[in-house]
Amino acid sequence: MIRTVGLLHVVGRRLLVVRPRGKGAFYLPGGKLEPGEAEPDALRREVREELGVELAPDSVRPARRYLGPAYGEGDGVLVDLSCYTAEVVGEPHPSAEVAELALVTEDEYLAHPETAPVIVELLRDLRGAGQVA
């Protein structure tokens, strides 16, 4: 089981996703928790590392949680993704560990050659709620 956190950042009915260097699929900005680290702290750290921005104090709110197959980790490995919303301070830009950023609709994400199952499920839910196109 891989425990992760991710930022749900929607702009113009499109979800912000990142593609790490060396990976084919896009994910939510975020990542794995360090031992003893609280989820909101891990989210702030990972967003700072990946996007070069801060999250506004007291704006981090739990939103959704997903459990599913971990992309690229082999058969039977699951990812436990806790999603949060937060106010982003600054303009996100890719760091050294991120190959590219994208704002995607569900259909645009599904058109990529590689997708992460939990992100597909998340986008389906966001589209059903009218939050993304």
TrEMBL record:
UniProt cofactor(s): Mg(2+)
Domain Nudix hydrolase stretches: 1-127
Keyword check for Lipid biosynthesis: no
Keyword Hydrolase tagged: yes
Keyword entries, A-Z: Hydrolase
InterPro entries the record matches: Nudix_hydrolase, NUDIX_hydrolase-like_dom_sf, NUDIX_hydrolase_CS, NUDIX_hydrolase_dom
Record GO terms (molecular function): hydrolase activity
One Pfam assignment: NUDIX
Family membership noted in the UniProt record: Belongs to the Nudix hydrolase family.
Protein name: ADP-ribose pyrophosphatase YjhB, NUDIX family
Source organism: Streptoalloteichus hindustanus
